[in-house]
Amino acid sequence: MVFSYEVMGQTIKALRKERRLTQEVLSGLAGIARTHLTMIESGTIHANIETVWRIAQALDMRPSELFSLIEEKTGNEE
């Protein structure tokens, strides 16, 4: 299994939409710029662990839960 920033971004985007949050709201809750979140969701930049941690908390979940979902989707991509 190979980590994919694209899958990570897709997972974050899906969770954001599931919770009916805009990029503006989620980025504000996570303390990052909306443009930064946009690039994370599209997989064009590599978010560091602290940023992913903050996004997970803003989505009201544990970082381990977020990474577990990313891992699940990565396994499905193979």
Write up what this structure looks like.
The structure is a single chain. The protein is built from 5 helices and no strands. The protein is mainly alpha-helical and 78 residues long. The chain has a single domain, classed as 434 Repressor (Amino-terminal Domain) (Orthogonal Bundle), CATH 1.10.260. Helix 1 packs across helix 3 and helix 2 crosses helix 4. It is globular, with a radius of gyration of 11 Å. The mean pLDDT is 93.
What characteristics describe this protein?
5 helices; single chain; 72% helix; globular; 78 residues; 434 Repressor (Amino-terminal Domain); mainly alpha
CATH topology label: 434 Repressor (Amino-terminal Domain)
Helix content: over 70%
CATH superfamily: lambda repressor-like DNA-binding domains
Radius of gyration, in angstroms, nearest whole number: 11 Å
Instruction: Spell out the helices and strands N to C.
Output: HHHHH
Beta-strand percentage range: under 5%
- Class by helix and strand content? mainly alpha
**Number of distinct beta strands:** 0
Second-tier CATH architecture: Orthogonal Bundle
Question: Which class in CATH terms?
Answer: Mainly Alpha
What is the mean predicted local confidence, pLDDT?
Answer: 93
Distance between the termini: 7 Å
Overall 3D form: globular
Number of helices: 5
- Biggest sheet statistics: none
Return the domain count.
1
Q: What ranges have pLDDT less than 50 throughout 5 or more consecutive residues?
A: none
